Amino acid sequence: MGVVKDFLFDNAYAVDAKGAEESVRSKYPGLLHADESIELAFKDRGGKGRDKKYFTTHRILIKDGKGVGGKRKNYTSVPYDTILAFSVQSAGPSMLDGDSELVIHSTGIAKVTMDFSAENVDIFQLYQLLNTKI
C-alpha cells in the first residue's frame, strides 16, 4: 500500500546519489559544476516518477518533467547561501499522513515545498544536511 500511496501523492523516494550523479553528468554534462557532487538524490512518485530532487555540495537542484511525455524539463536551483529558513515535518501515525515534508524559504524564489515518503526517507537526514550547509 505504501508504494501505491507514495505514487498517488507524489512522495519522493531516496535513490542512489552516486548513480544519480553519473546519470546527470552523462545526460546533462553542463548541469553540475566540475567541483559539485550529489550528496542526496530523490525521485518522485514513489521512485517511479520523472521529477527529481538533488541535494548537492552547492545547492538544491529540482528537476521537473513537463508535458505529456516529460520531454520538457524545468530546473530550479536553490543555492544554499540563499536559503533564509527551512522547516521539516515528520509523518503522522495514520495511513493518511504517511509523508514527510521539507519547506524551504529563500531569496529570489517563492517557498519550495517537497514531500518525501516516510517509509523510504529519513527527513532528519535532510535536516542535518541543511543545518551543515546553511
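(ticket continues) Second input and output from the same batch:
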Amino acid sequence: QHHCRVSTVLRASRLEAILLTHLHGDHCFGLFGLLHTIAMEGRKEPVVLAGPQGLKEMVDTVMKCSGGWFPEDSFALKFIEIPHLASDGGGFAAEQCSAAEPASLGTIAGLRVQAVPLVHSVPDWGYVLTEPDKP
C-alpha cells in the first residue's frame, strides 16, 4: 500500500485483484486500509480478493466491526477462497506441497492464476501468474 501511495505511476484504485498468501496479520492487516484507499480514489468496479479459506470471514468480520462495507457506495468485493489441504486447517508440510497439484483460480485481471501450497505453520499459498499466449 505504501508503494502505491508514493508512486506517481501506481494508483491503488487500478488494482483489479489482491492475492493473499496466508492470514497472518503481518501479511493481511494492511488490506483494510488499502480497500478504503481504493474506495476514496473513486473505484466502482469490483475487486477480487483471493486467499486461503477463511479470508471472507476475516474481511466480513473486520468490516462489520469497523462500520461496515457498502459496495453500493464504492465497489463490490469478489472472494475466491482456496480450500485447506488438511482437514484440521493447519499448515502444510513439505510432503503435502510436493504432492499437491496447483489449484486453478481461473483468469483474473487477464492472467491465468494458479495457487500452489507452501510450507508454513498455517495454510499458505503462492501464486503462478501466466500471461495469455500472444498470436
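Agent notes: The chain has a mean pLDDT of 86. The helical segments are 2-6, 25-28, 31-40, 55-65, 94-99. Closing as not reproducible unless the customer responds.
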